Amino acid sequence: MSLLHVSGLTKEFGDLVAVDDVDFDVEDGEFVSILGPSGSGKSTVLRMVAGFEEPTAGTIALEGEEIVGKPPFERDVNMVFQDLALFPHLTVAENIGYGLKQQGVPKAERRERSERMLEMVRLEGYGDRTPAELSGGEQQRVALARALVNEPALVLFDEPLSSLDRKLRQHMQTELQRIQTETDTTFLYVTHDQEVALAVSDRLIVLNDGGTQQIGTVEDLYEDPASRFVADFIGDVN
Ligand code: ADP
Ligand code: MG
């Protein structure tokens, strides 16, 4: 059984078919990217997995259980957004522990788990700062720590590195891979950036116009592209 099984996933906004009959699986421990140009439906797929958007049709099963219709907080899934969405008035430790607090985890345990996550993302000693006192890359790490602290089955990322400069982005790519391995978490990662996706992913789902163009490893996409679109799109790395 796959960790995540998506079948016939479709989303219409009025006359627009934003996601068109998409099928894919993500296995436990995999790093899978959804890659496609702007407007291809990547965020909409992710938002349906997270529960922020309901599908027009299709099913989404997590660990064998249908999750369509469940509210986001009842899904064993966390999401890291492009704009990070850290709470500016809370400290770093409070940001990381926020979800645990909602779940009724006692303060001492929240602090202990926040500190462990800060170590994981290499921000030891940053717990009492506020987000405004951190660099962009450091804020990124806090958002990641917050998404991992309650040990979800699946972490979703929507273009989390796109606001960083190239050098920092490359560094964070490596960090994401390390953290994924060390925490043994499954990542589903949305990006329009071929370079990032090809560098980090075990497998990629290539979307265009709401439809799946190809699903495969980096090697599959390079050596046996399913369409002209895939060949052009993944060849377009400078
Ligand atoms: P991507 O993340 O690949 O850039 P999106 O999933 O955001 O693409 O969008 C796919 C298509 O659906 C786009 O044409 C977008 O304009 C449209 N869309 C996304 N969300 C909405 C919405 N809430 N209402 C209407 N159209 C939407
Ligand atoms: Mg998007």
Tell me, rounded to a whole number, the average pLDDT.
94
User: What's the end-to-end separation, in Å?
Assistant: 38 Å
Number of helices: 8
Biggest sheet statistics: 6 strands, mixed
Annotation keywords:
binds adenosine-5'-diphosphate, alpha/beta, six-stranded mixed beta sheet, about 240 residues, 10 strands, binds magnesium ion, 8 helices
List the helices and strands and how they pair.
Elements: E1 4-13, E2 16-26, E3 31-35, H1 42-50, E4 57-62, E5 65-66, E6 77-80, H2 92-102, H3 107-120, H4 136-148, E7 154-158, H5 166-183, E8 186-191, H6 194-200, E9 203-208, E10 211-216, H7 218-223, H8 228-235
Parallel strand pairs: 3-8, 3-9, 6-7, 7-8
Antiparallel strand pairs: 1-2, 1-4, 4-5, 9-10
Helix pairs in contact: 2-3, 2-4, 3-4
The structure holds adenosine-5'-diphosphate and magnesium ion (MG).
Magnesium ion binds next to α1.
Your description of this structure?
There is one protein chain. It contains eight helices and ten strands. It is α/β, with parallel strands linked by helices. A six-stranded mixed beta sheet has the order 6-7-8-3-9-10, sandwiched between helices. Strands 2-1-4-5 form a four-stranded antiparallel beta sheet, covered by helices on one side. The protein is globular, with a radius of gyration of 18 Å. The N and C termini lie far apart (38 Å). The mean pLDDT is 94.
